[in-house]
User: What shape does this take?
Amino acid sequence: MDWTRDVTSREQNAQIIARLMPHCYGLRICGSAALGICYVGAGWWDAYWHLGPQPWDTAASTLIVREAGGQVTDLAGEPWYLGAGPYLASNGRLHQQIRALMGE
Assistant: This one.
């Protein structure tokens, strides 16, 4: 995941982290949404979420995840499209479990 500058989103991320951490080996913040999403596509990370993604971060990297067999949705589980808002990318196998733990 990565942080936005918005205080409300940061608080929401902190709540999500609190729910996920008991089920995770670790959590990484790389500082680049595009890079984090590509790490999912490469199989280096299991999942990535962002509450305020920008089109320049997600346009190409979403294609990379989908072409690699991963899944990309909004936090409600609907297929994500450019400009849709909050974002979850995963290897596909863990997607529903991660969504459930995120509390959306």
